[in-house]
Structures are given as structure tokens and as C-alpha cells.
Predict the 3D structure of the following.
Amino acid sequence: MAWIYLIIAGIFEWGWPVGLKLGLSEGGLRWGWLVFSLMTMIASGTLLLLAQRTIPMGTAYAVWTGIGAVGAFVIGLLLFSEPATLARFFFVGLIVVGIIGLKLASPH
């Protein structure tokens, strides 16, 4: 169950950078997006807390941030037209390899 919590926590990590990016416009603060950001931070942190009851902290944190980073990368490509360069894909691929490696090396 801890790995499920951790994966869902990583998915919630995608929400807060999106909320922060959309939370400020030329017209000022967009409070709905900022609240969305805060709520996804709380959900993500709570699920990370639950996952760390059995998954070692270093592993849980690395996987959590990795899932968040990869997801934010993909969302940036799809929703915000961020650059899709070969180098960026290569280095995000290294993060994915690291996440898989940590899962395989974990005793839980």
C-alpha cells in the first residue's frame, strides 16, 4: 500500500507547479489556482508521510520528487509548449531509470 501512496503523492506533485504557473497573470493573482496549488501540496505531503511509514525516507523522497519532476516535464510540454529537445528527454529518461532502480532495489 505504501508504494500506491507514494505514486499518488507523486501525481499530486504535478498539481502545485501548474497551480503556481497559472496563479499569476498580467491581471494579478488568480486565487483559485493558488488554492489548487496549496491543496495539491497538502495532499502530496500527506501521502508521502504515509508512504514513509514503511518505505525508507531517502527512497520515498527520491521517487516522490522524480515522479513530480517527470510529470511536470510532460505537462510543460503538453500544456505550456515548453521546449521538446532531445537533451531534455534524455535527462528526464535518466530520472525515470532512477525511479525504477530505486523501486527494484527497495526491500518493500
In short: The helical segments are 2-12, 15-22, 31-51, 57-80, 86-105. The first helix runs from residue 2 to 12. The CA atoms of residues 28 and 45 lie 28 Å apart.
